[in-house]
Amino acid sequence: MKKQRVLPIESGLNFRELGGYPTRNGKTIKWQKLLRSGYLSVLKKEDRNFLLNYGLRYVVDLRSDYEITHNPDPQMINVKQISDSVYPFSNHSSTSLKQFFKNLFQKNKTEKPSALSDPYELMVLDNHAQSAFRQLFQILLKNDQPNESVLFHCAAGKDRTGIAGFLILSALGVDQDTIEEDYLLSNKVLFGTRTVKTETTNNAAIDRMNQARNVDLHSLRLAKMAIETKYGGMHKYLNTAMMLSDEDIAELQRLYTE
Length: 258
What we know:
Layout lengths: L15 E2 L16 E4 L7 H10 L1 E6 L3 H6 L9 E4 L10 H13 L10 H9 L1 H16 L6 E5 L6 H12 L4 H16 L12 H8 L5 H15 L2 H7 L5 H11 L2
Parallel strand pairs: 2-5, 3-4, 3-5
Antiparallel strand pairs: 1-2
Helix pairs in contact: 4-9, 6-7, 9-10
């Protein structure tokens, strides 16, 4: 298979490879092991076949139950599909979460609507969101066969998926500059050449986040700062919040780097 960062999926959204990124210890992430994307519900047969031939074995869906019900992922033979919702946050009812996002967007109307620091902080600190990312890591540990891939995705493949990618690449020893480059690639892939319409979540405030035209490094860096402030660094976060032992982290690096 040709090694390419952006996968040639015509009917999908924001399909990308994490293979080839260097790690701090001189290794690189294996190709055909880690994929990220937006929603899959519109995938045509030829694109599904491409993914199957590429080695897809697990699909981890980070969307809400509402999103999954209204735009389910297509069933693919020999692919295990896991519902793993990051939203809703555990300490916010749907009403209070809506008000929270409303206040966030209105607190400084001169800021770009993509400056979404507080939701990103919640994605790394909230109990429910953490449980979703913990399950994702457990799936990664199960994916132990060569050239078999895990794909994780949300609606646009940039916010929930962006945080998931940040955590995974951090666990694999990728440096922050490279993580940020991968995160910002959503801007070019999603909006560089065409207008993208994403699905709805039944929460207007979260829809606004999903449909924001750009991801913003300020958001990702606030999530990183939240981890450092509360946990003292990424390694302790992985140990404590993600419940990954040092042996688990070493196994992830064995499975996904070379």
